[in-house]
Design a protein that fits this description.
Blueprint (H helix, E strand, L loop, with lengths): L2 H29 L1 H5 L12 H24 L14 E8 L7 E3 L5 E2 H15 L4 E8 L3 E8 L2 H5 L18 H11 L8 E7 L16 E8 L7 E3 L2 E3 L3 H11 L2 E4 L25 H26 L10 H6 L1
Parallel strand pairs: 1-4, 1-6, 6-7, 7-10
Antiparallel strand pairs: 2-3, 4-5, 8-9
Length: 328
């Protein structure tokens, strides 16, 4: 049975039990109708809806509660959809070279290039949606896949949570051209025109001397520059800074665009149809709907006894006052 079926069955079962209890209660009340309702022996007409209303409210409350529990615990969760030709793949190719640990990034220049790269990637995750998978490839002297076509954003985000990926590669100089070519080979089996490739690097590399062939799976390439492009930082006996010229050349070779994201995020225009725009008339999700139903049902159930007490019948039983006793 599906998650929705279990919740509906639980709600209907409780509603039927309450309806039976209400019928039994109504039979008992009829035996003492003169005591309960006075000489007319009848409550006000509106009270006829109390039994069905209480059954519906309790059934709805149970449905909402069971739905909320199943959603939050992940029980009976459906399998993720298969990766098809309509699935869009966000491919993030990340520079893991030692220069990415230099601190010259962010608005105030207090972030390391690697930390700024994590912020840029997080900004991408927050804005894309729909049928999307995430692939992260790290490069230094070589290119290695870290995660491939995962749907869980937290799995992809964890790649930048100080994982020592650089130790998986041999020492040497960053070879940007070779690393990007290897990265393209890793995604060539993806569906045609399905991959949005983001290359994030400071451009501190050996000279680009080779052509890079794009596989048919690539839809768009965007080169993202990290690091201060004006103020160099000393590392390993030399000065390192973001190299816009190299990055523009790389973007031109790949038929894409270059953006300096050292202090800004990726422009929304580069995300194309990765962004799922929410309309103003979108339906409530399961969690919000369940909470709303529980609140309405509980409020109604709490109000019913009060309404019955003060508006269920015209008959009132009162204690005699001292004045009434003296008059008698």
């Amino acid at each position: 049975m599906t998650q929705a079926g279990i919740a509906i069955a639980a709600g209907v079962f409780v509603a039927l039990i309450v309806a039976i209890a209400e019928l039994l209660h109504a039979r008992r009340v009829r035996r003492v109708k003169f005591l309960a309702f006075g000489p007319d022996a009848e409550p006000r007409r509106w009270t006829r809806v109390v039994g069905p209303l209480r059954s519906v409210c309790l059934g709805a409350f149970v449905w909402a509660f069971v739905t909320l529990v199943l959603v939050k615990t992940g029980a009976f969760a459906s399998a993720p959809p298969a990766i098809g030709s309509e699935t869009r793949n966000v491919v993030f190719i990340a520079d893991l070279s030692p220069s990415m640990y230099l601190t010259d990034s962010g608005v105030d220049g207090a972030l390391s290039r690697r930390a700024r790269m994590a912020e840029v990637f997080d900004g991408l995750l927050e804005r894309v949606g729909g049928d999307v998978t995430f692939t992260v490839i790290g490069f230094y002297t070589d290119a290695l896949p870290v995660v491939s076509q995962v749907r869980d954003r937290e799995v992809a985000r964890n790649v930048f949570n100080d994982l020592p990926l650089v130790y998986a590669m041999g020492p040497g100089e960053t070879n940007l051209g070779l690393s990007i070519q290897r990265s393209m080979e890793l995604i060539e089996t993806f569906h045609k025109d399905s991959s949005y490739v983001f290359i994030c690097t400071d451009g501190d590399s050996e000279a680009l001397t080779q052509a890079i062939a794009l596989p048919p799976s690539v839809h768009r390439v965007t080169v993202l520059g990290i690091g201060d492009p004006n103020r160099p930082t000393f590392i390993d006996g030399r000065q390192s800074k973001q190299d816009p010229n190299t990055l523009r050349m790389l973007a031109s070779m790949l038929g894409g665009n270059y953006y300096d994201v050292n202090t800004r995020h990726v422009p929304t225009s580069e995300l194309d149809n990765l962004i799922v725009r929410q309309g103003s008339g979108d339906k409530l999700d399961q969690t919000a709907l369940s909470l709303l139903v529980m609140a309405l049902a509980a409020t109604t159930l709490a109000f019913i006894p009060v309404a019955q007490q003060y508006g269920g019948t015209q008959w009132r039983i009162v204690m005699p006052t001292s004045t009434a006793q003296e008059a008698a």
